[in-house]
Design a protein that fits this description.
Blueprint (H helix, E strand, L loop, with lengths): L11 E12 L6 E12 L3 E5 L6 H8 L7 E6 L2 E2 L5 H11 E5 L10 H11 L4 H14 L15 H13 L5 E5 L7 H17 L3 E6 L10 E6 L2 E3 L1
Helix pairs in contact: 3-4, 3-5, 4-5, 5-6
The structure holds adenosine-5'-triphosphate.
Protein name: ABC transporter ATP-binding protein
Keywords: ATP-binding, Nucleotide-binding, Transport
GO molecular function: ATP binding
């Protein structure tokens, strides 16, 4: 799947061509990405696997419009991300992408249900619609009985389930999850990957997930191996 650098197909959620990203300047410059081209098929779960420092976070940040490449091209559902101004990027991230991070990123003073409903509140969804969607998502992630608990009253695995429910609340086309299991023990990590797998099917969404952990590759439809800023098959 890395072999189509000159443009993907209509079913590709992401097409990236020759991405380069360098941090700092010579003589201490770090070439985090050294010409990465890839396609991510729609409606599938793609895992980017690589050791610490291989460039996973850099790649996901570029593909999610959180950072810009030094050179190269990114199409998200056919939209040229590098051609967007800051307002365009904010709209893209808010409307099309759900982000999941290693550190969960929940708001500590809000309950699980309020965290999940936050994206709906921000786009002023009617209360009835919001409550219905929150209940549906809490059930989907197995936390209906924990709706009123705050993040510090939940385990790490439960917090990540809340974060995943929040990420899909607005029905994004794409979930980008950067090491979502990085802070979890091995068994909890498997449960979270199983959940992401189920969400891809239930919500008909595309997922791009990074991990350093080879044991999680079984959950992937597609695997991209990143090493020293380059993809290897
Ligand atoms: N803001 C930055 N300034 C300078 N160097 C950076 C910066 N961010 C990342 N790097 C360097 O770029 C390289 C790729 O980092 P990146 O975080 O993308 O890798 P990663 O595969 O996500 O690693 P990890 O699993 O440890 O998070 C590393 O050598 C890292 O030290």
């Amino acid at each position: 799947m890395t072999g189509r650098p000159n443009g993907g197909h209509a079913h590709d959620a992401i097409v990236a061509e020759e991405l380069h990203r360098t941090y700092g300047r010579a003589p201490t410059a770090v070439h985090a990405l050294r010409g990465v081209s890839l396609t991510v098929p729609r409606g599938r779960l793609t895992v980017v696997q690589g050791a610490s420092g291989s460039g996973k976070t850099t790649l996901l940040n570029l593909l999610g419009g959180l950072d810009a490449p030094d050179s190269g091209r990114i199409l998200l559902d056919g939209v040229d991300v590098c051609g967007l101004d800051e307002n365009g990027l904010v709209a893209l991230r808010r409307e099309r992408i759900g982000f999941v991070f290693q550190t969960f990123g929940l708001i500590p003073i809000l309950t699980a249900a309020e965290n999940v409903g936050l994206p709906l509140r921000l786009r002023r969804a009617p209360v009835g619609e919001r409550d219905e969607r929150v209940a549906q998502l809490l059930a989907l992630v197995g936390l209906s009985d924990h709706a009123r608990q705050r993040p510090d009253e939940l385990s790490g695995g439960q917090q990540q389930r809340v974060a995943i429910a929040r990420a899909v609340a607005n029905r994004p086309q794409l979930i980008i999850a950067d090491e979502p299991t990085g802070r979890l023990d091995a068994e909890t990590a498997l449960g979270v990957m199983e959940l992401l797998r189920a969400i891809v099917t239930a919500e008909n969404v595309t997922a791009l997930i990074s991990t350093h952990d080879p044991r999680l590759l079984d959950f992937a439809d597609e695997v991209l191996h990143l090493r020293d800023g380059r993809l290897h098959s």
